[in-house]
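Summary of Year 1 activities. Much of the first year was spent building the evaluation harness for sequence design. The harness presents a backbone, in tokenized form, and records the residue chosen at every position. We chose the following record to illustrate the format because it has been used consistently in internal testing since the harness was completed.
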């Protein structure tokens, strides 16, 4: 799912203080490119007659040839992000005056990408998320950028946990922006007000259940936890518990994709949702909440816990909801049992280059994507963002996972910038890093699986006494016959 971070997704540079998934961090979740100097000849000087320059330039000098790229651009409501992107465009064109940039605010949609490609209307590069790698590659809608990647000076410093999602059969088809491991955000003030103890960070399903039950107050419309209950988000939220119980969404057997979520682990995870709903009465009475609804409930103090990528939730809670950093705690997902893994869905944001673009357009798109990556200009841009945040009286929330390794030289430089603004930069509890366990989303028809499971979740929340095994068997049959049976794995 891409829902985790709609606010910081297009920051020029979003650094990470942390590393996750047994050693690295993302979100991942969103920053953009390096200067491009290491992969190209010296930039061209400005020339008012680009056609003349192109005619007289060496044939192998891309900086002297006229190139037009249509870039992924934030939507109109994201005014701050648009201003940041405009600044990057200005800096990029100062270095590459031969490049004309067209802005396109189309946001990736699985139901629209095919039409965009067929009509040749897709941008030169576009955003997508981790689940789409196999789909886009198999459809021929993601360019093979392996040659560009292999020439990229900083490729070995990119976060491998994230980048590997778009490396298929040894070929590179996308560039990571940032990622996330699903976490649980807790409103500590709500727990304190009800006299409910803050759980240990190494917590379990039982701890989550008891905490949610202790805070819930149905008469006041307060829930202890708000699991998402509509849209694909509902299936996405529940999948964390499937993973924590040791289950899998699918397996590949004999060249076929086989649904496996209707397992003993799946039943265990679904039964836990039953406890939250019917035993603890801890979820919202109006449980049909999408990502925005659940995060909004947390922001407004109507629920004590919500599960998602951390930075987007905290951004809204602090900068729109007026909560204080000390009252918003970020926890790993709970382990099914004491000593178990705190597994959360690993996802992220990626940029994919249009295979219909020319070779020159693809190369300039790659240079644009990586323009601020690992660069001092990128750090300067981050510093400027933090200065503005401080001037505006707003907090800055770093992603848990970023495009670079947190222990790299660039990661240390980024941390130094954050340290200058420690009063406004949200600090994650360092204890979380030893507990986070990220598991990548399945690579085949994951969004279809999420949608199917959302129907299961809605039935469970609306009807008491549902049969978890029967529900999962029916859902697995649907996913298998409608989607997985159409896939042939080489």
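For this record, the design step produced the sequence shown next.
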């Amino acid at each position: 799912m891409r829902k985790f971070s709609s606010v910081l997704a297009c920051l020029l540079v979003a650094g990470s203080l942390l590393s996750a998934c047994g050693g690295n961090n993302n979100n991942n979740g969103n920053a953009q490119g390096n200067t491009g100097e290491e992969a190209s000849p010296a930039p061209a000087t400005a020339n008012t007659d680009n056609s003349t320059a192109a005619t007289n330039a060496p044939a192998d000098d891309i900086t002297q040839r006229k190139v037009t790229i249509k870039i992924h651009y934030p939507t109109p409501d994201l005014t701050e992000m648009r201003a940041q992107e405009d600044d990057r465009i200005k800096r990029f064109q100062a270095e590459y005056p031969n490049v004309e940039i067209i802005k396109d605010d189309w946001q990736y949609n699985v139901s629209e990408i095919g039409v965009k490609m067929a009509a040749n209307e897709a941008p030169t590069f576009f955003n997508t998320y981790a689940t789409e790698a196999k789909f886009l590659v198999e459809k021929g809608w993601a360019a093979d950028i392996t040659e560009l990647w292999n020439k990229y000076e900083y490729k070995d410093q990119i976060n491998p946990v994230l980048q590997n999602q778009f490396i298929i059969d040894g070929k590179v088809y996308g560039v990571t922006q940032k990622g996330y491991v699903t976490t649980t955000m807790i409103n500590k003030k709500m727990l304190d007000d009800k006299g409910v103890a803050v759980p240990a960070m190494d917590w379990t399903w039982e701890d989550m259940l008891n905490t949610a039950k202790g805070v819930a107050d149905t008469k006041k419309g307060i829930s202890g936890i708000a699991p998402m209950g509509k849209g694909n988000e509902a299936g996405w939220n529940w999948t964390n518990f499937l993973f924590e119980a040791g289950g899998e969404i699918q397996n590949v057997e004999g060249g076929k994709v086989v649904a496996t979520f209707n397992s003993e682990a799946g039943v265990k995870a679904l039964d836990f949702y039953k406890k939250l709903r019917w035993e603890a009465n801890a979820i919202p009475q109006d449980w049909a909440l999408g990502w925005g609804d659940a995060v909004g409930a947390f922001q407004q103090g109507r629920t004590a816990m919500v599960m998602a990528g951390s930075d987007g939730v905290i951004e809204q809670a602090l900068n729109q909801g007026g909560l204080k950093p000390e009252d918003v705690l970020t926890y790993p997902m709970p382990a099914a049992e004491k000593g178990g893994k705190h597994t959360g869905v690993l996802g992220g944001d990626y940029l994919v280059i249009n295979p219909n673009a020319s070779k020159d357009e693809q190369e300039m798109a790659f240079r644009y994507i990586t323009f601020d990556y690992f660069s001092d200009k990128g750090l300067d841009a981050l510093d400027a963002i933090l200065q503005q945040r401080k001037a505006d009286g707003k907090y800055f929330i770093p992603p848990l996972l970023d495009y670079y390794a947190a222990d790299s030289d660039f990661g240390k430089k980024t941390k130094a910038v954050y340290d200058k603004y420690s009063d406004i930069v949200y600090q994650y509890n360092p204890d979380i890093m030893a507990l986070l366990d990220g598991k990548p989303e399945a690579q085949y028809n994951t969004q279809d699986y999420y949608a199917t499971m959302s129907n299961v979740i809605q039935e469970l929340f609306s009807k008491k006494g549902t049969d978890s095994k029967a529900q999962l068997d029916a859902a697995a049959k649907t996913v298998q016959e409608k989607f997985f049976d159409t896939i042939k794995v080489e």
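The chain has two domains: 1-180+346-434, 183-308+445-486. Quantitative recovery figures across the full test set are reported in Table 2.
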